[in-house]
Amino acid sequence: MLDSIRSALRNLGRKKMRSALTIAGIAIGVASVILISSISECGTAAVNNEMDSLGLGGLTISVNTNGSSGHYLTENELDTVRETQHVKQAIPLVIQNTKVGNTGLSQLDALVWGIDSKANQVISLQVLYGRMISSMDVSSNSNVCMVDQTFAQNVYHRDNIVGKKVSILCGGVEEEFEVIGVIKTGSGLLQNFIGDYIPNFLYIPYTTLQSATGKQSFDQIAVKVEEDYDVDEAGNAIVSTLSRSTGVIDGFTANNLAKQKDGLKSILNTVTVILSAVGAISLLVASLSIMTVMMVSVNERTREIGIKKSIGARRSTILFEFLLEAVLISLVGCFSGVLVGIAISFIGASYVNMTLQLRGDIMLLAVGFSLLSGVIFGVYPAAKASRLRPVDALRLE
């Protein structure tokens, strides 16, 4: 076996440039599949983190807009939701799309979220500088806010702007708020890529936003369900409890935003499979080049094959020798492609400050497909070489 491997390596080394180009084709195909899958995984993780940071990873309760109950979400409904079985925590949400900025600077579109002091138990808010909104801020209707990094960079051109003043247009009146915290809103990729549609995000006490806009109710109630409990069942239970407590039928609706996130993830996975299939086509083309190279090699070594068979080499030996060369080309190409794909993925993830995400199943699939196609396309040249008759091979000049 070792002699066969050494012989195969020696034969491949006779035409170094040809072998290198064929191996490079395999490597490029494998690397492209790995790169596509890692980009998809990083993108999926970024979108999931972003949605979690916006409170889009769990359950929300809102008034059924299709009904005509005229009912609203108030403190009574909030208490009812919190007392419902399997509800770990619930917070009120008051939302307003408005203009924010700094004195003397142009106003920016922003989504202002009115939250309470328990928001970080439901919404993933990573505080980088400063602090969270406190219960004292909520009870006193304080003009304080938390901003994300994107807003801080856009307005003050740095991340830490704790203590700075921000103007927010609330209820048609521009009011000044003190920045008490800077948060990291997911990966920031959604704002970077589609910032025209998703504005900057600011968080203020919900009581302050209610007072400024004249609202007495909440837009939504965000719910954190106990681990390992079905979110849909919890939503149905909450709606039923609210209907009993208020006497309003079909007045409330539960939105399982985690399911919507899973749907988005499914779409991204489908795109990954499609793009990986495109990368697999390059693997197929590279595998065809293996057949071409091996056919040329058979024609170049016809006399050598005749000599080996004339001194006793069996047909299986010749077949195995050429098949082993095809497998070695695929194996070296796969190994090189995996290294290159992981290296490029790591460099790209580091450049955009993201954690490298690799899919082992797609990596194994790419390597397995490459090796299998290399063997398949190497069989015909190997079989052709093994069928040569010694007298015909020796007679060829």
Structure report:
It is a single chain. The protein is α+β, with helices and mostly antiparallel strands and 397 residues long. 57% of the residues lie in helices and 18% in strands. The chain has a 6-stranded mixed β-barrel. A hairpin with a 6-residue loop joins β2 and β3 (108-115). α2 (16-53) packs antiparallel against α12 and α9 (257-300) runs parallel beside α12 (360-387). The longest helix has 44 residues, at 257-300. The two termini are 31 Å apart.
Topology:
Blueprint: H1 2-14, H2 16-53, E1 59-63, H3 75-83, E2 87-101, E3 108-115, E4 126-130, H4 135-139, E5 144-148, H5 149-156, E6 165-170, E7 173-184, H6 189-193, E8 200-205, H7 206-213, E9 220-225, H8 231-246, E10 252-256, H9 257-300, H10 302-310, H11 315-351, H12 360-387, H13 390-395
Parallel strand pairs: 3-8, 5-7
Antiparallel strand pairs: 1-9, 1-10, 2-3, 2-6, 2-9, 4-7, 5-8, 6-7
* Protein structure class: alpha+beta
- The helix/strand order is HHEHEEEHEHEEHEHEHEHHHHH
Uncertain runs: 187-197
Spatial ordering of strands, largest sheet: 2-3-8-5-7-6
- Give the beta-strand count: 10
Count of individual helical segments: 13
Oligomer: single chain
Distance between the termini: 31 Å
Overall spatial form? elongated
- Radius of gyration, taken over Cα atoms and rounded to an integer in Å: 32 Å
**Biggest beta sheet summary:** 6 strands, mixed, barrel
Mean pLDDT: 79
